[in-house]
Write a structure and sequence with these properties.
Layout lengths: L1 E2 L1 E3 L2 E3 L3 E7 L2 E11 L2 H19 L3 H17 L1 H12 L3 H24 L3 E4 L5 E9 L2 E5 L7 H12 L3 E5 L5 H12 L8 E3 L4 H10 L5 E5 L2 H13 L3 E5 L4 E5 L5 H13 L9 E7 H16 L19 H16 L3 E4 L16 E6 L14 E7 L2 H9 L3 E2 L1 E5 L3 H10 L4 E4 L15 E2 L2 E2 L9 H4 E9 L2
Parallel strand pairs: 1-5, 8-9, 8-11, 9-10, 11-12, 13-14, 13-19, 14-17, 16-17, 19-20
Antiparallel strand pairs: 2-3, 4-5, 6-7, 7-23, 12-22, 15-16, 18-21
Helix pairs in contact: 1-7, 2-4, 3-4, 3-6, 4-5, 9-10
Amino acid sequence: MIYNNLIAGEWSSGGELIQNINPSNTDDVLGDYSFATAEQTHTAIAAARLAFPTWSRSNIQSRAEILDRIGNEILARSKELGQLLSREEGKPLAEGIGETVRAGNIFKFFAGEVLRTGGEIMPSVRPDISVEITREAVGVVALITPWNFPIAIPAWKIAPALAYGNCVVFKPAELVPGSAWMLADIIHRSGVPAGVFNLVMGRGDVVGEVLATSADIDAISFTGSQGVGRRLAQHAMVNMTKVQLEMGGKNPQVILDDADLETAVNVALQSAFFSTGQRCTAASRLIVTEGIHDRFVTALGQRMEALRIDDALLAGTDIGPVVDQRQLSKNLEYIASSHAEGARLIFGGETLLRTHHGFYLAPALFADTTPDMRLNREEIFGPVAGVIRVKDYDEALAVANDTPFGLTAGIATTSLKYASDFRRNAQAGMVMVNVPTAGVDYHVPFGGRKDSSYGAREQGRYAAEFYTAVKTAYISSH
């Protein structure tokens, strides 16, 4: 089946067809997806611009009902959509369904936010004048999303954009067009007027380039790599386009001597390896104080031996395949360089054969690593983690902060003193105490510091900071 782009309310074929391949079984083709041309992308932007005046002033009750319908359909079809997600991205079925449920809840949350958009009335310092402060839609918003959360991340960008009255041009990652297309189909049938929401599937150097450089785009929200994010920001500055960037992390998970060992192992296992390590919030630097170090490494290695790495749709699979051959090759390169730098392999690191050909990799755990090794400096985006031995909490905190990234940071400890100090002094946008670094609720702000993030936070009521503009009005009573 051929899946087309949604432009100005119509399904439109593109310039080339790309097969969507299941990474668990490369013989399984999900469909042929039509990639948009540069000209079609310009057409989508123009359609959004044309629809904006009416949509931005539309009745808030009707917008709320549309978003609620979208959320309800996603939830009603969560198993179907979750299976599609797992087939194209490779995460285990339970995770695929869970991500889909999260997407549905995001739309329902913002259905409520439509009705909760408030303002302020303040007195002026001048007599007989009042001041009203309100929020208005920004305009035409370009949304560029990654492949690792192919429905949740689009949802947490699209839902607030529509809720606050913006029009959307949405470009999903090339590797996962299936979930994006299904979401677009649901949005299209929800009652959204033509041009308000547009789907342009395609390549970054074609579709992404148009979105980044168009003077008719008012705001760009991007989640992806640091290099692409920086280039996008440079383009955006030329047109003074509002920009929001989420660009990954090299997240630390600290394990202190006083930590409960079982808790520490569970937190590290999930943070480093689940979702095949393909999460910007994954903790690939395990910073462990010397009193618990040996017991922790042994226990974590034993837990890794029990993991089932297999087809994402099979019952009992803990970790699915890597998303594609390019990412698998990148992971193997980091594993080879870790060996070359003198790290000691505790477990994993080899490719695996399963019933069907897929991109299977045994999660790799290295010990005897140092903070300056490549695997502890660069975001791998795979199931590869290094253990760094430190003397005490102070050294652990210093090593945790020794990175240009600052998305999440975790600590396992039973000490209220250390937990409180880490919460305050970890240089990250999100801090986790005795819980995995990956996984945040849909109603709270998401984002980091330093090179991980730029611009306003995503999710929850904080999304209004990006998707609206503040207007101050002076009103005289005379």
